[in-house]
């Protein structure tokens, strides 16, 4: 439950308590006007015999009758009591003998306040429950609509492969490694950087490395592949994407890449403007199979995860 829904519920409860208290005061005020004295039946008969009762109104109820009236003494003193049905005929005769004004009514007007109070509270509780259900459902619908935006995570994959030739520098992840062979490529042939670039561009829906850095453009001849990553990061920033994680595996028979991973991670992280903890590297051989297994090529697979900002 979010804070907005909680505030609405609290306000509703405050309104219920306020309205209920006002109705209770209304009922209490009405009751106080008719219940200043609540004598027992014998005390009331004694008042009748003494001529102290001025007027009486008889109200019907289910199992008994209620009497409400005014005393002659004390002046303007009011009373209220319930009497059994069986004593009413004799009581009415006794009241008339004492010249007491008698009125008979089916429903006591003072009960309307109590009826209204009970009905209002019941309606408020039911209404509150229905409103609470509606608010919860509306909140869930808003959450369901907002969820894709709040969890706008996108994933892209990248792959690159280069032939290896003797006498060329071997650059992987922005680091030149000591080896007698290097990749054949238009740029520096950094297979890892190229795969990372493709994965990032793919996750953002921005094409691939060939779209932005075609090998037909002499400007990119022998270019440092870290420039490609810096450009990809700029494009991601323009689209409000943040790099969450880059997971890569480089496949080559030789040389051993593990000892060079820390420097590679630093170089990649610097070019992408992220922490090194977001770059994860692995190395595999091809078990002597195909061109990679014969030491004739090097390849990389990358998965990149982005989130919208």
Describe this entry's structure for a reader:
- By secondary structure, this protein is an alpha+beta fold.
- The chain folds into 2 domains: 3-147, 2-Layer Sandwich (Signal recognition particle alu RNA binding heterodimer, srp9/1); 153-308, 60s Ribosomal Protein L30, Chain: A.
- It contains 9 helices and 11 strands.
- The protein has helices spanning 3-34, 41-49, 88-97, 111-150, 191-204, 209-212, 225-238, 261-272, 290-293; strands at 53-60, 64-71, 78-84, 101-105, 153-166, 170-172, 175-177, 181-183, 241-251, 279-284, 297-308.
- The strands form 3 sheets. A 5-stranded mixed β-sheet has the order 8-5-11-9-10. It has a 4-stranded mixed β-sheet with strand order 3-2-1-4, with helices on one face. A two-stranded antiparallel ribbon has the order 6-7.
- Mean pLDDT is 84; it is low at 31-35.
